[in-house]
Design a protein that fits this description.
By secondary structure, this protein is an alpha+beta fold. The protein folds into 2 domains: 33 residues, no CATH class; 102 residues, Immunoglobulin-like (Sandwich), CATH 2.60.40. 17% of the residues lie in helices and 32% in strands. The strands form 2 sheets. It has a 4-stranded antiparallel sheet, with no helix packed on it. The protein has a 3-stranded antiparallel sheet with strand order 3-4-5, with no helix packed on it. A hairpin with a 2-residue loop joins strand 1 and strand 2.
Length: 153
Amino acid sequence: MRTFDLAPLYRATVGFDQIADLMDRVLTDTNTSTTYPPYNIEKTADDAYRISLAVAGFADADLGVEVKENSLIVTAKKGQDDDSKKYLHRGIATRAFERRFHLADHVRVSGASHVDGMLHIDLVREVPEALKPRQIEITGPNTVDAKAVEHAA
């Protein structure tokens, strides 16, 4: 496998730390990433998304969803197992886990629900008005802006 040195990126750019950190995280996590629990990420609207995690065997009280510094952290801790049960085959994994998702700027969690063994986390991107595109009115050559005249005087 190839390794990439991203140090020149840090030396030659200003303000792109998040992109470099994201690339560094993706390149280092490819071999160590776990597949438990399985999950889907779907786009439900232009600015809406849903993350669905298969959490069979977990109760609502066992699950935790937290947003911290542009990261969505989903955790699960299973309570004590009943020692009186003797399993012949145990194929349903209910082990503790922590799954992290990096959220883009202006993406917030709008809700979470636990239905039929699936944990659904709804996300929405809310771009502030200052960052949305806006149309600039073009005025003619004889139009004088009253505010510009006041500042000139």
